[in-house]
Amino acid sequence: MTSTVQVVATELYRARITPQGSLPRFKLGSTTVHATVVQIVTYIGYSQIGFVCVFVLTNLTKNCLGRLRPHFIDVCKPVNITCRGNEYYENYVCSGNPVLVSEARKSFFSGHSAFSMYASTFAAVYLLARIPRHTFGRAALPVIQTTVIAIGLLISFSRINDNKHHWSDVIVGILVGMFIAVYTVSYIFSILKIFQFLR
């Protein structure tokens, strides 16, 4: 949702500042389609492909590797096990809700971290590529990018505070989200051959 709003706002702004004669026109049957509409659909489509990649990779990893969440014992409610002494239990029976127990086994890697960092990194790199540098002054674009990245990091780190993930799950989620975002944006602009920074 955030990517969609950002892409629409950015492309409408670019259409407003670009001289009308320099924008290409596209034909769809007998209908002429404005270049801005084509660009919006293209960028939103590619951003959604990136989201699907994050979704697939996150769910494959969670289901194949898994890891117990920090609050697993509370959700599992193991039968006949006391938390006294230094005992290690290999065999236990959970009395908790089976759906919650299954979800509590999927800590690695953090999906919230991966998705939030994908969205924020995509936004930051997309803005760098699509907004002319002189538009808001020299400091405004880096401030916007830093704010967007900070929001993604805040969402990611909240998962540690909520006891939903271990710190390492969050760090890996952040790295995965950032990598897929940078790869997606690089792919978009290399395919479309428009990765030019406007001076």
UniProtKB/TrEMBL annotation:
Localization in the cell:
Membrane
GO BP terms: phospholipid dephosphorylation; phospholipid metabolic process; signal transduction
UniProt keywords, alphabetically: Membrane, Transmembrane, Transmembrane helix
Q: Where are the transmembrane segments?
A: 108-128, 140-158, 170-192
UniProt signal peptide? none
Q: Name one GO cellular component term.
A: plasma membrane
What would you give as a GO molecular function for this chain, any one?
phosphatidate phosphatase activity
The chain positions of domain Phosphatidic acid phosphatase type 2/haloperoxidase read 44-185
**Family annotation (InterPro entries):** PAP-like, PAP2/HPO, PAP2/HPO_sf
The keyword Cytoplasm is annotated on this UniProt entry: no
What is the topology of this protein in the membrane according to its UniProt annotation?
Multi-pass membrane protein
Protein family: Belongs to the PA-phosphatase related phosphoesterase family.
> What PANTHER family is this protein classified in?
LIPID PHOSPHATE PHOSPHATASE, PHOSPHOLIPID PHOSPHATASE HOMOLOG 1.2 HOMOLOG
Protein name listed in UniProt: PAP2 family protein
Native source species: Teladorsagia circumcincta (Brown stomach worm)
